[in-house]
Design goal:
This protein is an alpha+beta fold and 304 residues long. The protein has a single domain, classed as Thiol Ester Dehydrase, Chain A (Roll). Helix content is 16%, strand content 28%. It is built from 8 helices and 12 strands. The chain is globular and about 65 Å long. About 2% of the residues have low confidence.
Length: 304
């Protein structure tokens, strides 16, 4: 007897921590600050989106094992913000044997969708969720906050980055890896004990790859007008020759690959490629849709 019914893995309900209340960028506090969030019409400062990526790690390990941490990809569109104290559960459809792409998603305890995503195993990822979303983008009619940006613009310099266990990750991420590991929803010896990993070194969790890829982003010098409050609307983290290791030097190169707008936001999509320290071997990459809230920019309606 055989069945075609799709099977779904689900993780436990988790209560992720909000660790960006003291975040600062562009000379002002961020949407993760409760007062700023309330000023913009949100209930409280939300948890950063990639925090939820950790909840997929046990599901992906069950589906694809060690290979996911070496060649895996999560490509996510964020749907609804999560406030500290709310519970979230991760889900993944179990693909047939040999299939290297599947659907994953996260929901609050009451069923409210948090994010939708594709998960895949390289080198052939097929079309990821965000590649499909980018292909469907319409050219923006008129940009104000982002009017000085253009597709193909690259960062001003190569950025040398690393993540040590007790390294404070700066104004964008005012905490260390060890502080994150004390609060992470899915603890693993692989993140803290190199002797326990198949690679003989501690690895950087998927959600902290976002921190590694973004904390030096100010060096790119993209001429975004401000002050304006931004948020992550779409995000894809892809391992190519992974995993990434704690205490290892990497080099980042950035390029704007799309510009878009909605009724409430202007967006620039940045592809950040993470190389080894020599800049010769591509190890991982992150695609991120930086969305700026139009009404947070002083005089936007009048100027536009």
């Amino acid at each position: 007897m055989s069945f075609n019914s799709p099977l779904v893995l689900s993780g436990p309900l988790r209560s992720p921590r909000q660790m960006l209340a003291e975040q600062e960028y562009g000379g002002h506090i961020s949407i993760h600050d409760d007062a700023m969030a309330e000023k913009l019409g949100f209930r409280a400062g939300p948890i950063e989106g990639p925090t939820h990526f950790s909840q997929f790690a046990p599901l992906m390990a069950q589906i694809w094992g060690q290979a996911f941490f070496e060649r895996g990809c999560i490509s996510s569109h964020y749907l609804n913000m999560v406030i500290e104290g709310e519970e979230v559960r991760a889900f993944a459809e179990v693909p047939p044997p040999g299939v290297t792409r599947t659907r994953v998603w996260a929901e609050k305890a009451d069923g409210t969708p948090v994010l939708e995503a594709s998960a895949s195993l390289g080198p052939d990822h097929g079309q990821t969720l965000l590649e499909g979303r980018m292909a469907a983008l319409r050219p923006p009619e008129k940009l104000l906050i982002l009017e000085d940006l253009h597709v193909g613009m690259t960062g001003k310099t190569d950025e040398l980055v690393r993540m040590d266990p007790d390294q404070n990750m700066g104004k964008l991420y005012p905490f260390s890896l060890n502080q994150k590991l004390a609060a992470i929803t899915e603890p693993s010896d692989w993140y803290a004990n190199g002797a326990s990993t198949p690679w003989g070194r501690a690895i950087i969790p998927f959600e902290m790859v976002s921190v590694l890829a973004e904390y030096s982003s100010h060096k790119a010098g993209f001429p975004v007008k401000g002050p304006a409050v931004g948020l992550f609307a779409d995000q894809e983290i892809r391992m190519i020759d992974g995993p990434l290791f704690v205490g290892e030097d990497y080099l980042i190169r950035r390029e704007i690959v799309a510009l878009s707008e909605s009724k409430r936001t202007e967006s620039f999509w940045v592809l950040s490629k993470i190389y080894d320290a020599t800049g010769d071997t591509l190890k991982a990459q992150m695609l991120l849709n930086h969305a700026s809230l139009k009404h947070s920019y002083a005089g936007y309606a009048e100027t536009a």
